[in-house]
Design goal:
This is Transposase. Pfam families: HTH_Tnp_1. InterPro entries: Homeodomain-like_sf (IPR009057), Transposase_8 (IPR002514). GO terms for molecular function: DNA binding; transposase activity. This protein is mainly α. The chain has a single domain (8-85), classed as Orthogonal Bundle (Arc Repressor Mutant, subunit A), CATH 1.10.10. The chain contains 4 helices and no strands. The protein has helices at residues 8-19, 24-31, 35-44, 56-85. The longest helix has 30 residues, at 56-85. It is elongated and about 70 Å long. 5% of the residues are buried.
Length: 86
C-alpha cells in the first residue's frame, strides 16, 4: 500500500478547519485522511502548555539548532586550545 504525503499547508488547513468547529470524522470523510492522522496533526500544531506557546515541531527545531550551536562551541574550544599552544 502506497503511503500518501501531505504538505504542511494542507496539514495546517485541516487543523484550522478542526479548530473552527469541523469534526474529525467530517474531515475524514471529506478529505480522505484517517482520523488518527488528523489527531496527530492537531497535536503537532497545538501549543504545549508549559512550552511558552510553542508547538512540538517548533520545540524540536529549537532543540536541533541548540545541538548545532553546542557542537560549534565545542569545535571553537578545541581550536582555541590548538592556537593557544602555538
Amino acid at each position: 500500500m502506497k503511503q500518501k504525503r501531505y504538505n504542511q499547508e494542507f496539514k495546517q488547513t485541516i487543523v484550522e478547519l478542526y479548530r473552527s468547529g469541523t469534526s474529525v470524522s467530517d474531515l475524514n470523510r471529506e478529505y480522505g485522511v484517517s482520523e488518527v492522522t488528523i489527531y496527530k496533526w492537531i497535536k503537532a500544531h497545538s501549543p504545549i502548555e508549559n512550552g511558552g506557546g510553542l508547538t512540538p515541531a517548533e520545540i524540536a527545531e529549537i532543540q536541533k539548532e541548540n545541538l548545532r550551536l553546542q557542537q560549534e562551541v565545542e569545535i571553537l574550544k578545541k581550536a582555541m586550545t590548538i592556537f593557544a599552544k602555538k
